[in-house]
Design a protein that fits this description.
3-stranded antiparallel β-sheet; hpI Integrase, Chain A; about 350 residues; DNA polymerase, domain 1; mainly alpha; about 5% strand
Length: about 350
């Protein structure tokens, strides 16, 4: 990933340069994955963003991070916003993400002694417009969950065991997603040993290798128990696997297949805009609507910072404002006197 140095005719290749951006980036990525424990996909995202930065430096003839100053980083930010060459202008959220990667790289270089100071510190990523997470209503969630179980209730006794097993799997998976707020990767990554139906709890392995124990509600517990007893043995008949959710081949269910399970139920229920992450948003929003403390929701979601969780409180405040505006006699714009 390092910059390519081309020797001009009649000149000597100067060889490695102190602070060469390419090798510094590679050490930085190793640091993210090996020492900070970032997930592999997160490291790949950093790599993609920093590749764009290296291209920018290469075009401008910069061969060492020691030669980069604040104006160079600001110029890169401007090219991201305005576009350059084959690159189209980026949204504020994408610019902010790339600048976070660049600033992290320069901070790492300064800490490692590759450069004298972190010249990127004064550069602030643009604040993206606030977008509230989408949440389904409780009725919409119930409709999706009911759609997943509907074929079972109408299926004749003695039907196709494989089809019945997949329906039980669908119900268990969706009840787990909504009942625990699990990410789709956490759900399909579950092993049987992660479930404790006696204590009604599940151990989820989240981002960065962090684990958390989340309680299982009655519906999720009953759906999982039914799946484990009546369906999973049918799916596991071909091969042994520790995974809770199995494919028809007996292997661990993929994220794409789990997505398909949810999409199929949503279409049957006639509910649009449903995704695994929307179920997670709905889990958090419905807890806060019910009076749960934001710190508790933070632990249940596995957020490192409570500020990430507090975005959901904005959803509930907006909902309260809507109810107030349509219900309170002095908020309706009416001049009708209020009788005590």
């Amino acid at each position: 990933m390092g910059l390519c140095h081309v020797s001009m005719p009649g000149t000597r290749d100067p060889g490695p340069v102190a602070g060469d951006p390419g090798p510094v980036v590679e050490r930085f990525l190793d640091h993210l994955e090996g020492e900070r424990g970032l997930a592999h996909n997160s490291v790949l995202a950093y790599r993609r963003d920093l590749r764009r930065y290296l291209e920018h430096l290469s075009v401008r003839g910069v061969r060492s991070l020691a030669d980069v100053d604040e104006s160079e980083v600001a110029e890169f930010a401007a090219t991201l916003r305005e576009g350059a060459g084959e690159h189209r202008p980026l949204a504020a959220s994408s610019v902010a993400r790339m600048l976070v990667a660049v600033r992290s790289l320069h901070r790492f270089a300064a800490q490692e002694g590759e450069v004298a100071s972190d010249v990127s510190r004064p550069i602030r990523p643009p604040a993206p417009p606030r977008r509230l997470p989408k949440a389904l209503t409780v009725d919409q969630v119930v409709a999706v969950l009911s759609a997943a179980s509907a074929p079972l209730s109408g299926a004749p006794h003695g039907g196709d065991p494989a089809e019945g097993s997949r329906q039980l799997r669908a119900v268990a998976l969706l009840e787990l997603l909504y009942g625990t707020g699990a990410r789709i990767s956490e759900a399909v990554g579950l092993d049987v040993d992660d479930l404790d139906l006696d204590t009604a709890s599940v151990r989820l392995r989240g981002k960065g290798g962090r684990t958390r124990v989340v309680p299982l509600g009655r519906y999720a517990g009953e759906a999982l128990a039914a799946y484990l007893v009546r369906a999973r043995p049918v799916l596991a008949s071909r091969r042994a696997s520790p995974a809770v959710f199995l494919s028809r081949r007996g292997t661990r269910l993929s994220r794409q297949s789990a997505w398909t399970v949810l999409r199929t139920a949503a279409v049957a229920a006639g509910v649009e805009g449903v995704s695994p992450h929307v179920l997670r948003h709905s889990f958090a929003t419905h807890l806060l609507d019910g009076g749960a403390d934001v710190r508790v929701v933070q632990e249940l979601l596995g957020h490192v910072s409570v500020s990430t969780t507090q975005i959901y409180t904005l959803v509930t405040v907006d909902r309260l404002r809507e109810v107030y505006a349509t219900s309170h006699p002095r908020a309706l714009g009416s001049t009708r006197p209020v009788r005590g």
